[in-house]
Amino acid sequence: MPIAREFSLTMDDRPGMLGKLCRALAERNVNIVAAQSFPSSGKSLTRLVFDDPTKARSVLDSERVTYTETDVVKVKLANRPGELARAAEKLGDAAININYLYCGAEPSSNAPLIIFGVAEVGKATPLLEQAAAAAGGKA
Question: Of 80, 79, 99, nearest to 88 (Cα)?
Fold first, then answer.
């Protein structure tokens, strides 16, 4: 499914915070499909895509983590030169700005995934599916 649910978490930026959360997720058998984390004003902003958003939400709530949810586009691109260029150009040609992107791995095959944070998820999804299909991948 090319549209995925992304969880953006705000946590204290100190040792052990992410590890504790990841351990709680692992103990409930929630797999992290893609992740990005960076510091921002004494906090850590972490974006996560899970294999089971419902179960992940339950864990985050039980851990009292502050988070928001949004839709993002998840696309599997071939691991070779030019594939990200093809996808990014498709979006640019359609005047869709890429706000951010990060990588992950498809759980069933370990194929590389790119998570695109764009305002126009519905418009971007078919374009990225076309880019992936042209490259022999699958969104």
Answer: 99
Q: What pLDDT does 137 receive?
A: 52
CATH number at residue 123: 3.30.70.260
User: Taking a C-beta distance cutoff of 8 angstroms, is the pair 83, 119 a contact?
Assistant: no
Q: What is the pLDDT of residues 22-44, one digit of tens each?
A: 999 999 999 999 999 998 888 89
Stated pTM of the model: 0.87
Phi, psi of 42 (to 5 degrees): 80, 0
- Condensed to tens digits (0 to 9), the pLDDT of residues 74-106 reads 999 888 899 899 999 999 999 999 999 999 988
CA distance 16 to 63: 14
Distance CA 89, CA 127 (A): 10
Are 44 and 55 found together in one domain?
Answer: yes
Quote the CA–CA distance of 131 and 139 in Å, as a whole number.
Answer: 9
Residue 51 lies in domain: 3-70
Decide if 139 is inside a domain.
Answer: no
